[in-house]
Amino acid sequence: xxxxxxxxxxxxxxxxxxxxxxxxxxxxxxxxxxxxxxxxxxxxxxxxxxxxxxxxxxxxxxxxxxxxxxxxxxxxxxxxxxxxxxxxxxxxxxxxxxxxxxxxxxxxxxxxxxxxxxxxxxxxxxxxxxxxxxxxxxxxxxxxxxxxxxxxxxxxxxxxxxxxxxxxxxxxxxxxxxxxxxxxxxxxxxxxxxxxxxxxxxxxxxxxxxxxxxxxxxxxxxxxxxxxxxxxxxxxxxxxxxxxxxxxxxx
Length: 251
Fold this sequence. Notes:
The chain is of the alpha+beta class. Helix content is 49%, strand content 15%.
């Protein structure tokens, strides 16, 4: 009597790991991370978006990297830069220093950053700046904290402290930006602004003001005041935090 054919252990070894997996799981099995993605999307919907930074970053990376587990990459990016806002604000060259970040992934993150800036600017413009100081700081940090060169920008405000315009007036070197008080005031008059907030970044990471920062701020305030333009503050943004010259009593 013939015995039925069976698969010996030796033959299973010859089939190789991939064939054994297919024999056990079946041809329709999906990678393990597919289920994780669906669960994370469900948690996002149920929580109203209130997820940790690395999980929100995972959701963003799903579309950029459709066929790979992106949790390790999301955690690596947060570990490198500190927060989701700072990941999105990091220069492309620094993003690509993290293993797994391709040109396409870096480009997608910068598109999301640009959309976030547009949204944040719209939020600030809808109400007085001073009722949303924390949102203003977050906005400035996300756009400037990781810039490789100094940028000097001005927030022009109307009589109700609503945002008229947010403009980068000068871009300098890694440790200096030329600022021309005459041009600052000229632009404020063109926009009919009644108040200003000055903002610039320190690529070194340390937001401490220099003597030149203090002197320039006082000069602009002195020129603006007789023209009915009030200088509310000068914020300095760095990777390690931010400072307000007004809070420090330096203006």
